[in-house]
Amino acid sequence: DIVMTQSPATLPVSPGERATLSCRASQSVSNNLAWHQQKAGQPPRLLIYDASTRATGIPARFSGSGSGTNFSLTISSLQSEDFAVYYCHQYNNWPQTFGQGTEVEIK
Amino acid sequence: QVQLVQSGAEVKKPGSSVKVSCKASGGTFNTDAISWVRQAPGQGLEWMGGIIPIFGTANYAQKFQGRVTITADESTSTAYMELSSLRSEDTALYYCARGPVVVAKSYYYYMDVWGKGTTVTVSS
Q1: What's the pLDDT tens digit per position in A19-78?
Q2: 3-state class of B79 per DSSP?
Q3: What is the nearest CA distance from B59 to chain A, expressed in angstroms?
Q4: How many Cβ contacts (< 8 angstroms) between chains A and B?
Q5: Which residues does chain A have within 8 Å of residue B116's beta carbon, measured at their own beta carbons?
Q6: What contacts B8, CB < 8 A, 6 or more positions away?
């Protein structure tokens, strides 16, 4: 199975600041990489697919980059509603696998 | 607009089975993929398997092979996930999620719409 490793586990950020989350795959997943946001008590929500394409209705402050084994999610200016857990997810190989998550918390 | 409505919470005894349903409205059920993902209390997301109804066959994570069966009823736009030989470690929130299928050299799919989840509690 492909192991997805996210860093850091927790990211303290002040509102208005920029946040960059990292995700590394144990082998190449091409650009078949998604990012999901999950708030407490809610299901995940797709933010980014194909490594860099924003899903419908996702604000432009969210951007994804990378290919192969190294990926990142950037939130350009944190809003109060962005404090949540973020998961990367590879769908290039079976089984699909998720990272362990990065919690973006208020600094 | 695609919506996924999952069945209600379940409480099961160890060794029994549970079957969770996921009814889709909107979208193109037959040609979309439905995945099942679970989340144990306080833990991350775990992909269990998925199905493309028009293909009929499901893919499963090795971890659940032999214990999980994913099916789809095109006539009612409903997908099902049945998990057998339940143990306490199967206590979790089970999500269905739908996504478009991309066919290239092979095929792949991700999840762009998630259901609200079904809580399954396994306890004696």
Answers
A1: 999 999 999 999 999 999 999 999 999 999 999 999 999 999 999 999 999 999 999 999
A2: strand
A3: 8
A4: 63
A5: 43
A6: B118
